[in-house]
Amino acid sequence: QVQLVESGGGLVQPGGSLRLSCAASGSTFSRYTMGWYRQYPGKQRELVARITNPSTTNYADSVKGRFTISRDNAKNTVYLQMNSLKPEDTAVYYCNAAFLIADYWGQGTQVTVSA
Question: Which of 10, 40, 43, 69 is the most buried (most CB within 10 A)?
């Protein structure tokens, strides 16, 4: 069992930056592929970025060049650095941990980009 706790969301102006963090419980964090997803009201969750172990990454086209995912296995934490934020980045962001058939989600954190 893995518990995920996100932090770092909030309100930011267009063009600003935020860093999301996701702290995971358990001693097997390094085996998990970690991802950040977002969900708009009334829509399905969509992949924002994903990182395997050690560090193969992939990104949604809409965030390439603006967002960076990273992980610190010693701290059981995955990060999402979000730069040049746009109003369309406004959503609830969820952390995900996946390994074989195991699939865990955090509770989500709201990111709002608005002037």
Answer: 69
